[in-house]
Structures are given as structure tokens and as C-alpha cells.
Design brief:
The complex is a heterodimer of chains A (295) and B (294).
Chain A (H helix, E strand, L loop, with lengths): L1 H32 L6 H18 L4 H30 L4 H22 L6 E2 L9 E5 L2 E4 H23 L1 H11 L1 H6 L4 H27 L1 E2 L3 H16 L4 H21 L2 H18 L10
Antiparallel strand pairs in A: 1-4, 2-3
Chain B lengths: L2 H24 L7 H19 L4 H23 L4 H20 L20 H27 L2 H11 L1 H6 L4 H27 L9 H14 L5 H16 L2 H4 L2 H15 L7 H18 L1
Helix pairs in contact in B: 1-5, 1-8, 1-9, 1-10, 2-3, 2-4, 2-8, 3-8, 5-8, 9-10, 9-12
Classes of the chains: A mainly alpha (295), B mainly alpha (294).
Chain lengths: 295, 294
């Protein structure tokens, strides 16, 4: 019983670390570019598919596969930046709700393109060299797999580097200044547009890394994966408090562990519903989040 | 009536009703996607009543309206004045939960769905005529109520909330109360529409109530124009009808076309094609013409 619980907690931490990365990227765009990029996870799933195609074309060349994932994520993010900027300019003021609808439109396109253009809409499986499910530690019921260790390890390093960048570097200070007070940041000479573009590029890099980690952890991808993850990321972000980076870190890990534990004790599709019900209750009771909104 | 025309008209009517159900709470900046979950819940519940308990269709339809309204009201107690993104996420969560529960409930057919719903009135012709009559009545009734709402104090209060919540509150607008009212009415409309949606095809399947449906409704509202209910009326038949004229290979890409249209309109013409200013000018033109006639 105890061993099963520990195994599920390890599972949950590796899944949670991916949620944390996704929520961090989502929050960065929210705070600096001032957009609700609802379909950011769909961009990540698109990058998974690009990686899959490159892996197939290059005979499972991992380096090229990973690079393709990161580059495609950065490119999509940078291409969508002018659209978001245009929407905000047209409205005359920052309207994050309009950016959310725009992002949903982009998500619709990505999901449908994936279901028509890749593998005839069927799930794609990543090669064993990337999604190795070989256990590296086996202790009774506890089995820790390569993909889990990688996602947890890279997740921790990526979040640490990201927070280091945010709190210990000049560009990081610029990001935080814009998040705190855009007009004040402009007054002290911080270029809003350029810094906003950096945030798109940075979250693109983060998205590419997440795509590779998801491929390692899940071993496959479906066109609908982005919608499911998008929903959870927005939920984590709201439960934590929109724009609250530390809150996102805590709630992302908690959701991963909760989901894994529920999956361990409840059959397949019901487990998702239980996680959703808990999320729903928290959102209904505290719509402004557990840690407070930073907007 | 030819079968193709029946499906075109009835699905267009459903799309208009669903879009109006979404439009109404969006007047106070709430994107209330729980409407799609409510369509599924009420539809399946009505189908179960008809198939298992042999309840007459009329009562099942009424039950659909009541169930939709009840769910909407209960949820609105918590999110009547919540921010837009919280309302969005509650809606999506409800869709996921509703789908999972239906998928795992054998009484409503699980993942197979419910098939072979009886014809209303006995024959297929009477069934189609009855569905069309109910849809037409609903369109007229909801359209009339929306028209009255737009020209009432409540409509002006909703506009004030949409523009600036703080300003509306300082003017004495009951933000939470209006949010609750609009969410409840929206869910009531969605409940009844869900029942009719399934009875058009005489079956219910989870594939009817996907995020694709949310996308279609969102495209209709934002491309048509989110500041007036008329945009929906103009765009719903175009959006559903025009792809039918294309070859099947292009029809498969209709969600991409909808998504592209949504993105383009938000970027180039954020208010959509039918704007409030346009509707006001048409209304004043028509009232001027009427005065001249007199």
C-alpha cells in the first residue's frame, strides 16, 4: 500500500513538473506580454508532432528531433506575437479577454491541422530511444522510469534557471517591471515591445523543452492532448492566482500528484473526472485563486 | 420539405440558439461555455426519460429546460460576478466532467450513445414538422426577449458592466445579480436546445458535444458581432451553409476555416461584421421610414 502510494507520488511529481513549466510559460506571457495564451499547450503539442516528423525523417536522430521541437515552438510563438499585439492595439487598451479568444482561435486551427495532417489523426508514438520506459529503479511496486527522471530533473533545472533569470538578471528585472507597472517601466526606458517579444521567444524555448519532456513521459501524442492540457494549465493558473509564479509552482506539483494518486486508485476515465471536480470546487469557492492574483 | 433543407434549417436554428445562449452572458463579459455541457446533460436526460420511462416528448423537453436552468442557477451562485477567465474554465471543466459521467453511465448508452429515439407524433414527417415548429417558436421567443433586453435598463446595465465593472458598480448596478440572471437564462435556453439537437438526429452521442461545438459558437458570435444578437442570425446560416457547398475534401477543413475566420476578424474587425452602430442606424432608418409613411 505504502509502496504504491510512493510510486504514484513519484509519477505525480514528474507530471507536476511539466504542469509547472507550462504554467510558468503561461504566466510569463500573461505578466509581460499581457495575453492569456490559452492555446500555449496546443503550441507545445504541435512541437511534439514536429519532433515526431523530424525523428521519423532522420532515422530517430534525437538531437535534431529535440531541436526541431524547440525551433517550431519559438517560431509559432513569434509568428503569433504580431496578431496579439494587433488585437490589443485595435481595442485601444489592453484587453486580455480578447487575447484569450484569439488564442482559442489559434488553438482550433492547430488541433484541427494536427488531426488532419499527421498520421491520419491517429495518435503518434515516439521511438523508444526518446520515450524509454525502462525502469532505472525498481523497489517492490515502486518503479521509476527514465522518462520520469528526465522530466523531473529537467523540470527542476528549467524552473530554477527561469526563476534565476527572472530574479537575478537585467532582462528578468525588465520582465518583472513590466508585470508590476507597464507605464512605469516605459518611463524608466524599458522597451515594452522588445521585452514582450523576448517573453514570446523565451516561452517558445520553454514550450519546446516541455514538448520533448512530454514525449519522453507519455511516449505518444494525440491531436486532442493540447486541449486537455490547456484546460488544466488554465485551471492551475486560476487556482494558484493568475500570474502568481510561486503559486503556479506549488499548485502545478500538487495537481500532478493528485492526478497520479487518483489514477492509482480509480479506474481510467473516472480519475480525470475526480481531478476536474476538485479543480472545479476550488475555482467555484475561490475564483481569484489560493495565492492571490498578480495582475 | 427535402431532408437536406430540414437539416440545414434545424441545425442553423440550433446554432443560433446556442450562440444566443453564449451571447447573453457575454453581455457582462462572461464566456459561459457551461452551455455546451448543459446541452449534453439536458439532452441525455430527456432522451433517457423518453426511452426508459416513456415520458412524452413535451414533458421531456420541459425537463430539459428546467434542468439546464437549475444547473445554470446553482453554478451562478458561485460565479455570478467572477472574472471572464474563471467563467471560461468552469465551463470547460463542466464539459469534461459531463462527458466523463455520460461516458461511464450505461443507462444513457455510455460511449455508444443513445440511438433510435421515437418519432414525435408517429411519422417521420410529423417529427420533422414538430421539431421545425418548436425551433421556430423558440427562435421567435428568445429573439423577442433578447430584443426587449437590449432596449431595457437591464441591457444598459449589462453594457456598463462590459465596459467597466467598477463604473457599473458605482452607478448602482447589481453586478452579481445581473450575472446570475443572464447565466441562468443562458443555461435554460441551452438545456432546451440540447434536447432538440439530439431529437433532430433521433440520437445522442458524445461527439455532438465537443470543443468543436464551442469553437463554432464562438466563431458565430465574434465574426458575426458580439455587441448585438443580429450578428449571430446573419452568420449562423452562412457559416454552416457555405462549407456545405464545397467539395467534401474542403468541408473536412471547416474547423480550420472557422478558426482562421475568427483570428482574422479579431485582428482586422474586432467588433465583428454586424456592429451595434450598424443595428442602431438600421433601426433609426426603419423608424424614420415608418414615420414618413404615417
Amino acid at each position: 500500500m505504502m509502496q504504491e502510494l510512493i510510486a504514484q507520488v513519484v509519477n505525480g511529481l514528474s507530471l507536476g513538473s511539466i504542469y509547472v513549466l507550462l504554467v510558468t510559460g503561461f504566466n510569463l506571457l500573461l505578466l509581460v506580454a499581457m495575453i492569456i495564451h490559452f492555446s500555449y499547450p496546443q503550441v507545445v503539442v504541435f512541437s511534439m508532432y514536429v519532433s515526431w516528423v523530424v525523428l521519423r525523417l532522420t532515422g530517430d536522430n534525437l538531437l535534431l528531433g529535440v531541436l526541431a521541437g524547440v525551433v517550431s515552438s519559438v517560431v509559432i510563438n513569434l509568428l503569433s506575437a504580431p496578431l496579439f499585439q494587433k488585437v490589443m492595439q485595435k481595442r485601444g487598451e489592453v484587453d486580455i479577454n480578447a487575447t484569450m479568444v484569439l488564442s482559442m482561435g489559434i488553438g482550433m486551427i492547430i488541433t484541427d491541422v494536427l488531426s488532419h495532417s499527421f498520421n491520419e489523426g491517429l495518435p503518434v508514438a515516439f521511438p523508444d530511444s526518446l520515450s524509454s520506459n525502462t525502469p532505472i529503479v525498481r523497489l517492490g511496486l515502486i518503479s521509476i522510469q527514465t522518462g520520469q527522471v528526465w522530466s523531473l530533473g529537467v523540470g527542476i533545472v528549467a524552473v530554477a534557471l527561469f526563476f534565476l533569470l527572472l530574479y537575478r538578471t537585467r532582462p528578468g528585472r525588465a520582465f518583472r517591471a513590466i508585470a508590476e507597472d507597464p507605464n512605469g517601466a516605459r518611463l524608466v526606458g524599458i522597451p515594452l515591445l522588445r521585452t514582450g517579444l523576448y517573453s514570446y521567444a523565451l516561452t517558445g524555448v520553454l514550450g519546446g523543452i516541455i514538448a520533448v519532456l512530454l514525449a519522453m513521459l507519455l511516449g505518444s501524442a494525440t491531436p486532442g492532448l493540447g486541449e486537455q492540457v490547456a484546460h488544466k494549465v488554465l485551471a492551475v493558473s486560476i487556482i494558484a492566482g493568475l500570474g502568481n509564479l510561486v503559486g503556479g509552482l506549488v499548485v502545478g506539483l500538487l495537481l500532478g500528484v493528485l492526478e497520479a494518486i487518483v489514477q492509482g486508485y480509480v479506474s481510467g476515465s473516472w480519475s480525470n473526472a475526480i481531478a476536474f471536480v476538485i479543480m472545479l470546487v476550488v475555482i467555484l469557492v475561490r475564483p481569484k485563486g489560493l495565492f492571490g492574483t498578480r495582475l | 420539405m427535402p431532408l437536406e433543407l430540414y437539416y440545414f434549417l434545424s441545425i442553423t436554428a440550433v446554432n443560433i440558439l446556442l450562440s444566443w445562449a453564449l451571447y447573453l452572458p457575454y453581455r457582462v463579459a462572461h464566456l459561459h461555455f457551461i452551455t455546451v455541457a448543459n446541452m449534453a446533460i439536458s439532452g441525455y436526460a430527456a432522451a433517457w426519460l423518453v426511452m426508459s420511462l416513456h415520458v412524452p416528448f413535451g414533458w421531456a423537453l420541459l425537463a430539459g429546460f428546467v434542468l439546464g436552468g437549475l444547473i445554470g442557477w446553482l453554478v451562478s451562485l458561485f460565479i455570478g460576478d467572477a472574472p471572464t477567465f474563471a467563467v471560461v474554465i468552469v465551463g470547460f471543466t463542466f464539459i469534461f466532467i459531463a462527458r466523463t459521467v455520460i461516458e461511464n453511465t450505461p443507462a444513457v448508452g455510455g460511449s455508444m450513445g443513445i440511438f433510435g429515439l421515437p418519432n414525435i407524433g408517429g411519422s417521420p414527417e410529423t417529427h420533422r414538422a414538430t421539431i421545425m415548429a418548436i425551433l421556430a417558436a423558440m427562435l421567435l421567443l428568445v429573439g423577442f426577449l433578447l430584443h426587449r433586453f437590449e432596449h431595457s435598463r437591464l441591457g444598459r446595465a449589462a453594457s456598463a458592466i462590459f465596459v467597466d465593472k467598477d463604473l457599473a458598480a458605482s452607478l448602482g448596478v447589481d453586478i452579481r445579480g445581473l450575472g446570475r440572471l443572464l447565466q441562468t437564462v443562458s443555461c435554460t435556453i441551452a438545456g432546451g436546445t440540447g434536447v432538440l439537437y439530439g431529437f433532430i438526429y433521433k440520437s445522442f452521442h458524445l461527439d455532438f458535444f465537443t470543443f468543436g461545438l464551442v469553437g463554432i459558437a464562438m466563431t458565430i458570435i465574434f465574426v458575426g458581432g458580439y455587441s448585438t444578437p443580429w450578428g449571430t442570425v446573419v452568420l449562423a446560416p452562412i457559416l454552416y451553409g457555405v462549407p456545405l457547398l464545397f467539395p467534401p475534401a474542403i468541408q473536412e477543413w471547416r474547423i480550420v476555416i472557422y478558426g482562421a475566420a475568427l483570428v482574422l476578424v479579431l485582428v482586422l474587425k474586432p467588433e465583428g461584421f454586424v456592429t451595434r452602430r450598424f443595428v442602431v442606424s438600421v433601426e433609426s432608418f426603419l423608424s424614420g421610414a415608418t414615420r414618413k409613411k404615417r
